């Protein structure tokens, strides 16, 4: 994480919120002394001085030693020297206590056995551990307070990783293939693997996280294909609620909410990330690059550039780009004022400059042509100034002329809405920005996020915070406009100027053709499943995530008549600078269960027993991934190390070529921001991403409250063996069949997805 503000310890910054005098988050005064507080220093000093006043020496002679080595000054009396020495000793004692507490907290946070205990049955060891974590965690931690106390990601043993890998591929291979893989694994483990492991452990000693820097560089930044569809992902608005039909008003409230969030983020006033329902902190490092961040194209590799502060947003509308300042005389504009400025852009009749209208297609196409064009056409003059304005903006905003969202009489509207958020027209989003907010003509909105700098939970927290603030805190007047007054003397948004030569226009057209071909091949299906939700699943004493994953395995088997290597994203943010790990959801247990279920005309007790075994195995694999004992990141780093050393490994080469035909991820829902009991209509279909494999599916799902599940399914139209709608139908059937297996007397399910009704007005 190479942001400029981390390169120095001290910062004196004049920001839009006033003068910001602080250290970087790892060295700020409050975070730096956590879990103690700055005021505790005074307590220690007073305690030492009070003890000395009783003529006892709590330092056991150290204060006298310090006094001996103080610079002797004629103006300093003996009593004053003693006082200074006592203060110095107190400060050193205070720092030692802080260091000890942080080391104790770090050791405590390295304990993960609690995660493997049965739900509802906490051991005495874990109870003591929880109490100690609470004690050493201090009071009122800031967002980054836990960063220095988080443990480093451990490097798993080679033999454990190899063993788990062989176990994970067994249901996917016949005896001959498995025997071949076993031989390759044995050769690797006994020879090259130990050498690579030794180098990897050396890397783990000097790096904060032995995976994250390589993961960001090789998985994301070195990819030379389009990031649109292939990497970027999207988040959706409420399904059944549009707070206002006025496009500018929706933008006014939500943009104000985004900057309120940024203010809290900069001041570290957001609560530290934790595992829901526990006191266990998660790494918050990814939050640093949420705003003022852009991915910069390069010929060999891209870079992520982060700026410390930005007082404006870049706005796209009808082929024009605008710079909209959201601060005036050091204050954040009110929602009504932002609405006024957005409306000015919507009403601006000026045409786009020559070549400007589809300029954004450069960010949607291949990276190398964009990198070359950026150097050749945007490195000086008016083009550089305008491009700098976009890249240094807090984030990007697209004002769409289309109406989109959920339409009651058009089931396909949700699919087209999702496709618009995923890729739009391929030129009306700036896919390099950390995130783009899209506002549709009918008041609907959505988000498209670049993936290299952070993972979806970070963006999801921002997105859901903005939705909640927009509806439940800011609100609208009776006409649907933002509340408040307008300062009509606000300077107009600045239209950016461009001088695009014909050669650059040709490159824009080529990038657009690549992007349109990619977008046109996306088959996307989104639906909400309202027959039942996690509430009923939990009553069956089954993890909702394991239940959904088993349903996906069953649906895929019915759709393709085979099993496949399945990717489920799991976080590793229990560790410092952790990102994700893979849970290989297709296991021997899950495949045995599906064979039993599909091979028997009756759903018998054997299938039920095998289901519970498969669900338990999945949960065990998920916990291993979260606690640093996963398979794929370790194998990935071993492969990268082999490339650095210039050695070939048939085993690692085979592992890296394994196709992920089913890639899944759960979109987090921050339930504390929404009252889904009294306002069940305030639900979203979460978010989604494009297909990962040419012949596979990408599935993002959300658990919305107690009674709704949502699914975003993506595949490629060019593959005749896949269909997003057909797979969606299989998922619905699999969910119902699994609940029928768990509750044999389950009554008939609903056949329609009904819009939930609000219990009371806001």
From TrEMBL:
A GO cellular-component term linked to this record: mitochondrial outer membrane
Ranges where the Carnitine O-palmitoyltransferase N-terminal domain occurs: 1-41
Catalytic activity as recorded in UniProt: (R)-carnitine + hexadecanoyl-CoA = O-hexadecanoyl-(R)-carnitine + CoA
Source superkingdom: Eukaryota
Keyword Methyltransferase among UniProt keywords: no
Compartments where located: Mitochondrion outer membrane
The keyword Acyltransferase is annotated on this UniProt entry: yes
Membrane-traversing stretches: 33-53, 83-105
Listed InterPro entries: Carn_acyl_trans (IPR000542), CAT-like_dom_sf (IPR023213), Cho/carn_acyl_trans (IPR039551), Cho/carn_acyl_trans_2 (IPR042231), CPT_N (IPR032476)
EC number: 2.3.1.21
GO molecular function per UniProt: carnitine O-palmitoyltransferase activity
A Pfam family it matches: Carn_acyltransf
Pathway(s) it belongs to: Lipid metabolism; fatty acid beta-oxidation
Gene3D superfamilies given in the database record: 6.10.250.1760, Chloramphenicol acetyltransferase-like domain, Choline/Carnitine o-acyltransferase, domain 2
Family to which the UniProt record says this protein belongs: Belongs to the carnitine/choline acetyltransferase family.
Record-given protein name: carnitine O-palmitoyltransferase
Gene name of the encoded protein: LOC116061178
């Amino acid at each position: 994480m190479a942001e400029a503000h981390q390169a120095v310890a001290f910062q004196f910054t004049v920001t839009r919120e006033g003068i910001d005098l602080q250290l970087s988050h790892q060295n700020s005064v409050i975070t730096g002394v956590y879990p103690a507080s700055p005021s505790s220093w005074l307590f220690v000093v007073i305690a030492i001085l009070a003890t000395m006043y009783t003529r006892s020496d709590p330092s056991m002679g150290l204060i006298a030693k310090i006094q001996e080595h103080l610079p002797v000054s004629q103006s300093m009396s003996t009593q004053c020297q003693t006082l200074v020495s006592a203060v110095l000793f107190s400060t050193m004692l205070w720092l030692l206590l802080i260091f000890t507490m942080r080391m104790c907290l770090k050791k405590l946070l390295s304990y993960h056995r609690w995660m493997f205990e049965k739900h509802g049955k906490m051991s005495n060891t874990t109870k003591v551990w929880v109490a100690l974590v609470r004690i050493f965690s201090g009071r009122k931690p800031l967002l980054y307070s836990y960063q220095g106390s988080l443990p480093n990601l451990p490097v798993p043993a080679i033999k454990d990783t190899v063993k788990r890998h062989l176990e994970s591929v067994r249901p996917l291979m016949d005896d001959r293939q498995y025997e071949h893989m076993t031989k390759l694994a044995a050769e690797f483990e006994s020879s090259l693997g130990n050498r690579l492991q030794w180098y990897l452990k050396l890397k783990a000693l000097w790096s904060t996280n032995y995976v994250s820097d390589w993961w960001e560089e090789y998985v994301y930044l070195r990819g030379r294909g389009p990031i649109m569809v292939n990497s970027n992902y999207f988040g959706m608005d409420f399904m059944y609620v549009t707070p206002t039909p006025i496009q500018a008003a929706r933008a006014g409230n939500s943009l104000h909410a985004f900057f309120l969030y940024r203010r809290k983020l900069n001041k570290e006033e957001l609560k530290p990330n934790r595992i829901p329902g526990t006191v266990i902190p998660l790494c918050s490092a990814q939050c640093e690059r949420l705003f003022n961040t852009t991915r910069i194209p390069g010929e060999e590799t891209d870079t992520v550039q982060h700026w410390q502060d930005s007082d404006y947003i870049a706005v796209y509308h009808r082929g024009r780009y605008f710079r909209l300042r959201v601060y005036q005389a050091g204050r954040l504009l009110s929602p009504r004022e932002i609405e006024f400025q957005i409306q000015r852009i919507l009403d601006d009749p000026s045409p786009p400059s020559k070549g400007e209208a589809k300029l954004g297609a450069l960010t949607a196409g291949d990276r190398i042509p964009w990198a070359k064009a950026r150097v050749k056409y945007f490195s000086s003059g008016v083009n550089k100034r305008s491009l700098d304005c976009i890249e240094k903006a807090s984030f990007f905003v697209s004002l769409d002329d289309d109406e989109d969202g959920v339409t009651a009489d058009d089931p396909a509207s949700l699919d087209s809405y999702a496709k618009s958020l995923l890729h739009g027209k391929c030129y009306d989003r700036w896919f390099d920005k950390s995130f783009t907010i899209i506002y549709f003509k009918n008041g609907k909105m959505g988000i498209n996020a670049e993936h290299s700098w952070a993972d979806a939970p970070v963006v999801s927290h921002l997105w859901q915070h903005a939705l909640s603030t927009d509806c439940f805190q800011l609100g609208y007047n009776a006409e649907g406009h933002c509340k408040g007054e307008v300062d009509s003397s606000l300077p107009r948004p600045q239209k950016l100027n461009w001088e695009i030569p014909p050669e650059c226009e040709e490159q824009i057209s080529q990038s657009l053709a690549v992007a349109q071909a990619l977008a046109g091949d996306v088959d996307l299906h989104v639906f909400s499943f309202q027959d039942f939700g996690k509430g009923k699943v939990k009553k069956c004493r089954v993890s909702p995530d394991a239940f959904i994953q088993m349903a996906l395995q069953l649906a895929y088997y019915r759709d393709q008549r085979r099993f496949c290597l399945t990717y489920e994203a799991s976080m590793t943010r229990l560790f410092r600078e952790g990102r994700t790990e893979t849970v290989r959801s297709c296991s021997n247990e899950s495949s045995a269960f599906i064979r039993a279920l599909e091979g028997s005309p009756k759903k018998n007790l054997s299938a039920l027993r095998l289901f519970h075994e498969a669900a338990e195995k999945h949960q065990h694999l998920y916990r291993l991934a979260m606690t640093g004992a996963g398979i794929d990141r370790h194998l990935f780093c071993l492969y990268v190390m082999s490339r650095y050393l210039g050695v070939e490994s048939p085993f690692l080469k085979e592992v890296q070529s394994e196709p992920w035909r089913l890639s899944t991820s759960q979109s987090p829902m921050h339930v504390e921001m929404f009252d889904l009991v009294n306002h069940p209509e305030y639900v979203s279909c979460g978010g989604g991403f494009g297909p990962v494999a040419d012949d596979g599916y990408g599935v993002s799902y959300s658990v919305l409250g107690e009674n709704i599940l949502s699914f975003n399914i993506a595949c490629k139209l060019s593959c005749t063996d896949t269909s997003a709608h057909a797979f969606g139908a299989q998922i619905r059937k699999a969910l119902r069949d699994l609940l029928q297996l768990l509750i044999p007397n389950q009554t008939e399910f609903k056949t329609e997805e009904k819009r939930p009704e609000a219990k009371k007005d806001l």
